[in-house]
Amino acid sequence: MSTGKSIAITRPVGQGEETSRFVRRLGWNPFIVHAVELRPLEQSSILKEFSRVIAAGPVDWLVFMSPTGVGAFFDMLKSHSSVLPSASGQVGIMAVGPKTRAALRNYGVLDVVVPESYSSTGIANCLLRFQMKGQRVVLVRSSAADVRLATSLTSRGASVETIIIYESVIPANRESVGGFLTGLVKGQFQAILFTSAVSASNLFSLAEREIPRSHLINLMSSSLVGAIGPATAEKLRELGIDPSVPGRYLIEDAIGELVKKYEEEERHSGPRR
Prior knowledge:
Elements: E1 6-12, H1 17-25, E2 29-40, H2 43-55, E3 61-64, H3 67-80, E4 92-95, H4 98-106, H5 120-127, E5 136-142, H6 148-155, E6 159-169, H7 175-185, E7 191-194, H8 197-207, H9 213-220, E8 224-227, H10 230-239, H11 251-269
Helix pairs in contact: 2-3, 3-4, 5-6, 8-10
């Protein structure tokens, strides 16, 4: 049975059904906010970049930061394998988390390293356990990714290159953002979870067309706000929100922790509203 409590969660366009099912199993009502649209680049663009990278020499590590990147990359490989130069040497494959590893396994890649912490920081810490000096690392990621991972690896002697595989853009359809703002004004959300830094940036950018930032921050302060990962938390703090950060950077874990935290606060202090 639903408790009548609701949690808003940012997810890319086309994603959120699995998350919604999980929230309902906890007895809460989900509201998916599509604040990001992931648009894979043209295969010809991905092919050009990957060809350039492997033509320059052997790659030691290929790092995937999302299932979306895995799909776009391997679809390109299937379509253009006959025109790619050969990649010599043994390549280590790393995935940022379990869902990215599962996506790789769907393409037949079984030997995949996953860090203990599912984030850019976790990737860096995991790779730095290996000898990085002289290692060539290729990051397969979004246009919205920051440079901290590359900087960390470069500082330890690695040669790092990035293949931009998709763009993270503001969605053309903004209906869910409008619904979120309406619900926020009405006080319908007991918790809000931001799943990426770009989702936070985009949501604020869209919201500020309707609501002054100070009012938006005030409205959100009535809800328990969570952020998956340090980059997302840092972006929210820049925007004026101090979120809680889950111990593990998985959506299900983060939702579970927010729900538990809210319910504990409610038992001790009563509802936030």
